[in-house]
Amino acid sequence: MAIETERRRWDGKLYIDGSFSDGSGGEPGGVLEKATGSRLGSYAVASGEDLDRAVRAARSAQPGWAARSYEERALLLRQVARAMEERADELADAIVRETGSIRGKAQYEVHASQNELYEAAGLASRATAQIVPSANTGKLNIVQRIPVGVVGVITPWNFPLILGMRAIAPALALGNTVVLKPASYTPMTGGQLLADLFETAGAPAGIINVVTGSGADVGVALAAHPDVDMIHFTGSSEVGREIGAVGGRALKKLSMELGGNAAFVVLDDADVDLASMVGAWSSFHYQGQTCITANRHIVMRSVADAYRAAIAERARRMTVGDPAGDDVSIGPVISESQRDRAHALLQGSLEQGARIVEGGTYDGLFYRPTVVDEVRPGMPLYDQEIFAPIAPITVVDTEEEALRLTNETPYGLVNALYTGDLDRGLRFAERVRSGMVHINDSTALDEAHVPFGGLGASGMGGRSGGEANLEEFTERRWISLQRTTVHYPY
Ligand code: NAD
Q1: How far apart are CA 269 and CA 267, in angstroms?
Q2: Residues 392-399: what's their mean pLDDT?
Q3: Predicted local distance difference test score (pLDDT) of residue 129
Q4: 39 HSE (CA, 13 A, CB side)
Q5: Which of 193, 270, 301, 352 has its CA 20 to 30 A from that of 127?
Q6: What is the mean pLDDT of residues 234-258?
Q7: Is 158 helix (H, G, I), strand (E, B) or coil?
């Protein structure tokens, strides 16, 4: 069964230079509904020649697109946002079925993608030049912001629509053109539907192109392509390192949004019931499959018994099932390999002395929300990104120890803490080493206008969101104008 949509013609197609076409890289791949395993549709497999065509289209469209008025660029983004509004139910249905998420997450994703478009539309007029002083008499220094050029956008499967849109919208707003390569688990909502939305909204040919296929073939080729000026990559730190090496050798601008190992810290003055609610959400939303999932619950000893019991009770009450049909708390994990990897992290930690408090079992792709106690640094669950609904608890004796453990990880995307004293929370947050820290709220927050991103193994290149996108998607050009005659010694 294919996803019901008014626009079926994109099913299994590439989108290059304003038209949908078959891929010449092999037989189309299948797209499965994650909860049932039934076939939703297909995706085209791009060849090297298809990718070249997409890059050529983006290259030749770029100067004309950048030369358009900011109003025209902003208008297109607003029209895409309006098209999303009209098709919000269809898009949410597709996300539920293709990603296995509950409807609330899918609706959030549609809404947040629209916000990205509206924010970016506002950015189109803010790529301002500066006049800066000169030491030389009679010289006028102008510093302009100019587009980077052709941006290759490579996205993961967990939030395919928003993670594509958060790069595409500001890139286009600022006069760049795009070649998008979505993940093969989610090529529809991550790619084909995006192409369809832009086409319907009247995007000029070539400004956005979508090529589908494997990371090892199409992703690598896009990252290495000599005519792509920038790679905006969202995905695992492991693949980020590979793309960093390839893109670095080709001297491309790189923007990397990578993995996480977020701590959710519960201080000894926290309201434990509220903390357990926020902690449960932080670990279990979308089956724990986000970079901003709480991967470690670091809890002070005096509240640990109460916190463990409260979060385990919340996990016990959660329902797991097909999010398309049932009213459930969480759906399936993305794949058997992802499930097996996470389960192996759990088993490895149990062998080293960790203890299951709740859950720890699965049925097919449906993994029970799981709470694990006595998790220590050095255990797989503690050290590695889990990407499944598992909440590991580590008990500490002091606030200093909580801070030290929070910071002792190569990752630095987000951390959160719960406390009864906001001032104490702020002092703690100011000593945390991560791109984002949330006090008395979840690790899982994102807003289109605030800078999102991480340090260390979690990211490189800058931030997504609002003003930060000006830095990401433009270069600076210094133009100087000498109004008086200058004299050099030769
Ligand atoms: P992944 O790194 O396996 O794949 C991401 C994308 O890269 C896919 O499109 C894939 O096809 C492509 N790819 C794979 N190998 C490639 C290569 N060698 N060269 C070029 N492209 C290649 O990640 P995933 O499993 O799809 O997503 C989960 C990961 O993404 C997690 O680590 C998660 O933390 C991270 N993530 C980070 C953020 C963030 O904003 N920091 C947001 C969401 C997800």
Answers
A1: 6
A2: 98
A3: 85
A4: 8
A5: 193
A6: 96
A7: coil
CA distance 287 to 168: 26
Contact predicate 7/196, CB 8 Å:
yes
The catalytic position among 119, 291, 385, 399 is 291
Under a CB-based contact definition with an 8 Å cutoff, are residues 444 and 285 in contact? Answer: yes
Element (DSSP H or E) covering residue 131: strand 130-132
What count of other Cβ atoms lies within 10 Å of the Cβ of residue 306?
A: 16
Joined tokens for residue 331: 């759906």
Is pLDDT at 4 greater than 70 in this prediction?
A: no
Q: From CA 402, how far away is CA 410, in angstroms rounded? A: 16
**From CA 332, how far away is CA 8, in angstroms rounded?**
26
Alpha helices in 174-271 (DSSP H): 187, 193-200, 220-224, 237-249
444 C-alpha vs ligand 1 centroid, how far in Å? 18
β-pairing verdict for 39-43 and 29-32: antiparallel
H or E stretch including 350? Answer: helix 336-351
User: Helix 160-173 to helix 88-99 angle, to the nearest 10 degrees?
Assistant: 130
Helix (H, G, I), strand (E, B) or coil at 64: helix
Write down the pLDDT at residue 9.
45
pLDDT(390) > 90: yes
Checking if the pLDDT of 43 tops 90, the result is yes
Model pTM score: 0.96
Question: What per-residue confidence (pLDDT) applies to 44?
Answer: 97
Tokens of 4: 């019901």
pLDDT digits (tens, 9 = 90+) for 190-201: 999 999 999 999
Whether 167 is in the pocket of ligand 1, judged by its Cβ within 6 Å, is: no
**For the chain, which domains are there?**
3-258+458-477 (3.40.605.10), 262-439 (3.40.309.10)
Structure-block tokens of residue 356: 């299951």
Which of 158, 409, 411, 414 is the pocket-test mutation for ligand 1 (most atoms within 8 Å of CB)?
158
Task: Place 466 in a pLDDT band, splitting at 50, 70 and 90.
Answer: confident
Ligand 1 centroid distance, CA of 241 (Å): 11
Q: What percent of the chain has pLDDT over 70?
A: 98
- CA 287 vs CA 37, 54, 163, 329: distances in Å: 17, 35, 18, 9
Q: Looking at residue 127, what is its pLDDT?
A: 76
Lookup result for tokens 């010289």 = 139
As a whole number of angstroms, the distance between CA 292 and CA 283 comes to 9
For ligand 1, atom 39: residue with the closest CA: 257
Burial grade of 139 (CB within 10 A; 0-12, 13-18, 19 or more): middle
Write phi, then psi, for 334 (nearest 5 degrees): -70, -35
Q: How far is the CA of 436 from the centre of ligand 1 (A)?
A: 20
pLDDT attached to residue 434: 97
